[in-house]
Amino acid sequence: MTFENKVKMSIEDWRKYENDEDYEFAYGTVDFLSTKKNSHNHLYSEEVIKKYAPTVIGKWVLAEYDNFEGDVTEHTENQKIVGFVPQQDIKYRYDDDNDLIASVDIVMSKLYANDVYSLFREHNYRNVSIEELVGFTPETKNYMDGGDKPKIVEGFNITGITILGLKYKPSVPNANIKLTQMSEKEIEKEYVKYSEHKMAEKDNFVSHPVNKSKEALDEGDWNGDKAKQDLIKEKNFKTLAKSVCMKLEEGWEDRQVTKLGYPIMNIKEGEWVYNRKGLASALGYAQKENESAVVSKIQKIYKKLGLDQEEKMNDILEKLENIENQLKEETMAKEKEKVTPKEEDVKVDEKETETTDTQKEPDTKAEVTDDDTAKKEGEPEKEDDTETKMAELKSELETTKAELETYKAKVKTLEKYKADVETAKKDSIVQSTLSQIKGSVDENKYAEIEKASKECAYENIGAWKNNALAQAYVSVMSKSTEKDMLDMGMVQTEKKDQPTSIYD
Fold it and tell me: Which pLDDT does position 2 carry in this prediction?
């Protein structure tokens, strides 16, 4: 049965979509959050995004349509609901800069958001911006939004996704929405595929987290084929594949091993981690095959892990060793040449000993003497070649040693810079923590905590902070039963004064 009669509905554009297989809803995909630096300078880690991104499920897609502009605006108090985020798994992927991107599918009403939907029929790409409740780390929560110092996000709760007009830029780079033209049959097909996939995951697939830190780097043996076989067994295959393999050919989404190229990660102790030999192997093959895009990706990973500096140092040391070995071999050969008589000279001596003056003809003697003289005349030339080669090697050795010293100085400077940064971070945490607990503990306890901070290394400052706050908490709770209120910050957006007339 078809429903053709419109009853008690004031939707003038209903007839525009009556021939569509789905005249009620449009469907799209939104990239809503990433680890890239944003205009607020709020720092989102991969772990925090993956933990709290699902808060977007069931939330609203919002927009305010401006009739004068003929476009949507930005975050305003007059936004209206134009769609929602249905139940689903959040999709994750990595871009060319190795930044994590979170995306989700949305449903938009054609009938009740006709003006907004029409914009996508003309230009199927819009920037978006999320609205959220945010919690920052205690030491960064008072930093200014958009300032030089990042505010580190500990957690968040997304309340909505706002569609922005063409002249507005998103806070998160490349946050956008695109609509897909899908019929009811296509939707049903995708749902069946999704259901089958979930059942397969439940029965056969495994799940391992990703650890991209340098500390987790696998220094062991490498087996690229095994890495790919392990990869296709993962529940979160589509997300993992973009991290594990540097090149994905058409058809890779169907878990085809032959379409997975240049693997660089393997499973170690229950986690996907980078493998040093895997990185080196992929880089070598990519350079040989002139895969510039793959080479660029791997070099960025090398730099991120600090392996590029290590590789450079190893190359210099290997070069030094080779030059020193060559010099040693040349020197030994030269010394041996001085001590050991030549085979030709030995033969001549033997012949002269065995032959008397009466037995040897003057012509034969003369021939031997001439050959011997000719060979001896050639000897100084060979010595000159050796000397030249050794001089070149010594010069190269000195140059390489100078390069090594320059590099050591550079590393020393970087280490000092790192130490200074860590000291500054530590001091900031200490001062912030001490200011929080001052007045909550007695003077003796405060002095004890302050002394402990000075003796504490940067790596352990987090434990010191937790201990200091715990002592302050115990002290306060012993004096009062009054509960503290949890403070959550709201992302602030610039609001423009509403015009009072058309001329405004």
Answer: 52
